[in-house]
Design goal:
- About 35% of the residues lie in helices and about 20% in strands.
- It is built from 19 helices and 17 strands.
- It has helices spanning about 10-25, 45, 55, 60-65, 85-90, 120-125, 150-160, 165-170, 175-180, 205-210, 235-245, 345, 355-370, 380-385, 395-410, 420-435, 450-460, 465-470, 480-495; strands at about 5-10, 30-35, 70-75, 95, 105, 115-120, 145-150, 190, 215-220, 255-260, 265-270, 275-285, 290-300, 305, 310, 335, 340.
- The strands form four sheets. A six-stranded mixed β-sheet has the order 3-2-1-4-17-16, with helices on both faces. A six-stranded parallel β-sheet has the order 6-14-7-8-10-9.
- Helix 1 packs across helix 13, helix 10 packs parallel to helix 11 (about 235-245) and helix 15 (about 395-410) packs across helix 16.
- The chain is globular, with a radius of gyration of 23 Å.
- The chain starts with a strand and ends with a helix.
- The model is unreliable at about 445-495 (pLDDT under 50).
- The protein binds flavin-adenine dinucleotide and NADP nicotinamide-adenine-dinucleotide phosphate (NAP).
């Protein structure tokens, strides 16, 4: 009898967990990878910057894992909404939670909730075409924008804001997002670090790219970059040297300007009905802690992008530490037959590859715990989902989305793929679901097997009629889900514009 494991989340941690299970298990193993979205790969699809195509190609490796015998992708199934901890423990010998860190940390300053103050999580989701954020959510109509934080996500966000739409044309950015980037009125982007250049979290390779932007001059103030490089570790020393070299640069008169600031912390976001300015305070370190000096500066920005880190959210019924914002574990073990891997296990840090060794550790613990034990499961998940009116998006359903994205890119003369957002993805999934059920074209899905449709409803939250039109599939997904999502869109759009 096979060992049956449910992996919750199909980002790098979830897929590496599935891979480690197939590699480390000495007997037969079956792995179901459950994912709330209709599409796999987590932040590799909806986080890694669209212009970092070589990093995105890691999806090719992850795909081979999902295609292995014994591994099954079940998209559009959300833990906590569609299935509970008890359901999974009844159906599988073990459960591994790999749901990442999907929401933003807060800065804790007045004005943080004003329209125009935006979490980087939302902005990244927007340009990556994530179903949670509609394509019309952001209008880049402010000439000046501040990005708070000096980590790699801040660097990604700044780079996307600084590049021209033409430079992003061959990426997978959804059509409507590309149109909005093309219409951007942004002239100056301030990237603000609350400590010095020697404390910045970005990595050297990523930092260097900002100095090579064709469309933007980068400016650093010599007095803010004046750190001694003597005893610094190699990477950090590299960062400081690059920043100091930029401080000596003469601007070349490019259309956009990037101001990289240090020793400034946000103290208030100003504005009546929306962001009108950002108040910063000069800082210094006292006993290793950031303190204000009482010297202030106001930046006339119309948008503040808060890129101060991600955090995990608790999963219903699963232990969670509010102090570390992770699931407490010992080498991946959370409780009997329950495990954790990835950002949910160790917090939002490290590169994609870090999740591979992390998942391998969790799987070692799991297999050691379960070795020699009798199977614990009694039920099957699929009938349970069917009783709840859910038919998961299959791996073939996802491949249909991939094929449609490649076709869209070809029809637009844009790169390898263009992300389908909203109605267009919903239409592809609806069509695929019909075919999997053996129904003729144009037949409505019977009630009770609407999983593909419900996942499609989730997908349609990003409602991009333009992309749907271009894909030649407009209209097919005119579902109640799409209508509901449109309502949500209006509210979000007002808040963020
Ligand atoms: C903006 C950004 C850019 C990045 N760029 C790079 C880069 O260029 N190079 C690099 O090496 N690293 C990069 N990283 C880091 C890398 O993406 C992470 O290390 C990695 O994605 C973490 O993997 P994970 O599987 O733990 O989480 P995730 O990738 O977030 O995957 C979690 C998955 O769980 C799913 N999920 C969440 N809740 C539920 C639920 N309740 N039920 C079912 N499924 C659920 C999510 O939809 C998601 O698919 C980046 C990170 C960010 C935030
Ligand atoms: N290309 C890549 O490889 C790539 C791309 C994107 C992301 N990633 C990885 O993904 C992970 C997450 O990246 P991230 O950029 O979100 O997080 P991060 O590396 O932790 O950076 C967060 C930044 O926010 C600042 N910050 C935190 N709270 C603040 C506050 N209240 N006010 C002002 N500034 C504040 C931090 O400053 P302090 O240091 O002072 O706290 C830091 O500069 C990292 O491991 C990153 O390397 C990798």
């Amino acid at each position: 009898m096979s060992l049956r494991v449910a992996v919750v989340g199909s980002g790098p941690a979830g897929v590496y967990t599935a891979e480690a299970l197939t590699r480390q298990a000495t007997g037969p193993v079956e792995v179901d990878v459950l994912e709330r979205l209709p599409t796999p790969y987590g932040l590799v699809r909806y986080g890694v910057a669209p212009d970092h195509t070589s990093i995105k190609s890691i999806a090719g490796y992850l795909r081979r894992v999902l295609e292995q015998p014994g591994v099954r992708f079940l998209g559009g199934v959300e833990f906590g909404r569609d299935v509970s901890r008890e359901d999974l423990l009844a159906c599988y010998d073990a459960v591994v939670y790999c749901t990442g860190a999907m929401v933003d940390r807060r800065m804790g300053v007045p004005g943080e909730d004003l329209p125009g103050s935006v979490a980087a999580t939302d902005f990244v989701n927007w340009y990556c075409g994530h179903p949670d954020v509609p394509a019309d959510r952001f209008l880049l109509d402010s000439p000046e924008i501040a990005v708070i934080g000096v980590g790699n996500v801040a660097v990604d966000v700044v780079r996307i804001l600084a590049k021209t739409a033409e430079e992003l044309r061959d990426t997978d950015v959804p059509e409507e997002v590309l149109a909005r980037l093309a219409a951007s009125r942004v002239k100056t982007v301030h990237m603000v670090g609350r400590r010095g250049p020697e404390h910045a979290k970005f990595t050297l390779k990523e930092l260097r790219e900002l100095g090579e932007l064709a469309n933007a001059d980068v400016r650093v103030r010599p007095e803010e970059a004046a750190a001694s490089v003597e005893d610094l570790p190699r990477q950090v020393r590299g960062n400081v040297e690059v920043l100091q070299s930029w401080a000596a640069r003469i601007p070349a008169g490019r259309p956009r300007r990037l101001e990289v600031r240090f020793w400034m912390r946000p103290v208030e976001i100003l504005g009546r009905d929306r962001v009108e300015a950002l108040r910063l305070e000069r800082t210094r370190l006292a006993d290793g802690r950031v303190v204000g000096t009482g010297a202030f500066e106001v930046l006339p920005v119309g948008m503040v992008l808060r890129s101060v880190g991600y955090r995990s959210v608790p999963l219903p019924g699963v232990p969670f530490s509010e102090a570390t914002m992770t699931v407490p574990n010992e080498a991946g073990r959370v409780a009997d037959r329950e495990y954790v891997a990835g950002w949910l296990k160790r917090g939002p840090s490290g590169v994609i590859g870090t999740n591979k060794s992390d998942a391998a550790e969790t799987v070692r613990t799991l297999l050691a715990d379960l070795s020699g034990r009798a199977p614990a499961r009694h039920a099957d998940l699929e009938p349970l989902l069917a009783r709840r009116g859910l038919a998961p998006v299959t791996y073939d359903g996802w491949r249909a989305v991939e094929a449609a994205e490649a076709a869209l890119a070809r029809s637009l003369g844009r790169g390898e793929r263009v992300k389908l957002a909203g109605a267009a993805m919903a239409a592809v999934l609806e069509d695929r679901g019909r075919r999997e059920d053996g129904l003729p074209d144009g037949t409505e899905h019977p009630e009770g097997t609407a999983g593909a449709a419900s996942a499609a409803g989730a997908a349609s939250a990003a409602g991009t009629a333009g992309a749907a039109g271009a894909a030649g599939t407009a209209g097919a997904a005119g579902t109640a889900g799409a209508a509901g999502a449109a309502g949500a869109q209006d509210a979000e759009g007002l808040a963020a514009r």
